[in-house]
Amino acid sequence: MVLVVLENQRGNIHPFSLEAVAAGQKFAQELNCELSILCIGEKVDELRTQAQNFKSNKLITAQNSLIDMYSADGYSKVLSDVISSMAPKYVLMGHSYMVRDFVPRVSAKLSIPFVSDIISVDFNNGSPLFSKQVFNAKLATNIEVSSNQALLSFQSAAFSSDDIQEGGPDSEEVFDVQLTEQDIRTQSEPEFQESASGVDLTAAELIVSVGRGVESEDNLPTMQSLADAMGAEVASSRPVVDMGWLPPYRQVGSSGQVVSPKLYFSLGISGAIQHVVGMKGSKNILAINKDEDAPIFEIADYAVIGDLLEIVPKLTEEINNSK
Amino acid sequence: MKIAVLTKAIPSYESSIRVDSSGKWIDESVVNYVVNESDSYALEEALQIKESVGGESEVVVVTLGSEANTSKVIKDGLAKGADRGIFIKNESTTTDPLSIAKLFAENLKSENFDLIFSGLQSDDMGSGQTGVLIGEMLGMSTATLAIETQVEGDSIKVKRELESGWFQWVTLPFPSSISIQSGINEPRYPSLKGIMGAKRKELNTLESSPESQNQSFLNLYVPKTEKVTEKIEGDTDTIVVKIMDILKNKLKVI
User: Fold this and answer.
1) Quick one: which of B53, B49, B84, B62 has its CA closest to B5?
2) Which of A201, B45, B144, B193 is packed most tightly, with the most Cβ within 10 A?
3) Mean pLDDT, residues B110-126 taken together
């Protein structure tokens, strides 16, 4: 049996969880086994109602007032108990921040390996291989699991929610959750959003995005001039925000905004997966980087190998002259 | 208060990464090893907590790996202000997060740390599990992706980063293992005095041997290009002419 764990994102099934449902259906088909879907914790009824549309063998709900709000303590205990009781071969989840927060606890409790951030699966006649990016996305690896069970989390777009087969579960089950107040050591407060000031990059047609390759805060005005000449918004990768060169609302990636402009002009961005998930849907990607092995070039339509500090000022001048 | 900071030596961004003849690992001889970026933020957060709490606080920098790759990492931590170092020597290339966490847990158990800080993930393996695994193994409370911390008596309040601009405050009783998000603070540079003083600080080397791995690399390979990519090379003027052609005639964006 394979088990898919659904995550609630403010009233809806998390988009990554939908992709995990598609993954679960594919696993069940390839491995010729049953598929169970688990709705856990927060607003479990909302999850259950939405999951009743998906074709599965069993839809399980696990609810208790002690996990009405997410905590790593509560979720890891309950998921461990479900796994111990139902013995799934694979437990499938999206590689969300919540999964990263509590699933390693399950792995340690049960001594079941957790293969995280998988980008694709080769079913390999029943003994699957899981590929993931390593060494800052410069290389990839195929991981083989030697234990009988494994926890798996998938990077976004490893599977597509468009492939979900509808039809509903064959049966439903309520899992008997055993939790006491002593199990929950941490106190969680409600989620909140910081003031949404700033720029909606998702609406921008043209984006000039800067990475650590701009080398210094002093070079940012040069990049801004190019954006101005093109009528583009300025965006960045995480390190630029971490160093305080640009405000957080300019950041593209898993912890920033997800954009799909007509042109994403990437300047000195290496292309770590956390960034790429935020911009790979762009219609055209033009990237400048002096490292010809930079992983950004794997997804670029145009790969410029060169020194952006020389290229950008001349390019800006040319654009301004052509107007 | 006793704080451990887990820090890892990883290939620098500029390093050339090539698969070695085994096909399962990289050619380490051409790689320059540096401190994993988010670990620097974890160390800074620990040092700031020590400075604000005062008393008999101690920051211990801990690393695991081969002697050749990791020596710089410990020295860097001690130079920046950690009080002592623990080096868990492991000459094999262990990539299974569970096996790695067990080595840490076994060797750190007797230390009874109040806090264990780690970077949110290592930029080489990117599993993002070690800190949480160790926390569970040592019976600690856990949290990940901390972007702000406040120590309050015997507990720590942590602002966790969630997806797309959302956050959550979580209060954890000690002992607690917390992974630190990059950008939480401004990591300091080692002072000359710090660098000189680092040599006199205690460094405890512990031998370790990992158990067999539950997940392992079958191979390493250069990812296939997903798109047809047009390469643009040449001198600056040639490149500028080519980019102008793309922007103007192909994409029609200027």
Assistant:
1) B62
2) B144
3) 96
